[in-house]
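Case study 2.
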Amino acid sequence: MMERLGFSVALFAALAVAQGASVRKMRGKELAAYALLLLPVLYQDAIYVIHAGWPSLPDLMSILLKPPAAAIDRYLSSGEAG
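Prediction:
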């Protein structure tokens, strides 16, 4: 686990160096959007570091998007869409 943690810290340190000046200039909504984009990365990184048995992002997206996609498919196949 320590090797994986060290690897992750090194990657995030490289990201901080590469993006540091840009992030310091961000304000408000732009900073919030940047933080929201980092959340999936942090989630996947946590799975990687602690060997968690959590669902991966594609699994989560499938759980979240399958019901609306099925509803849209049923609606379009029923012939009512046009």
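The chain has two domains: 2-51, 56-82.
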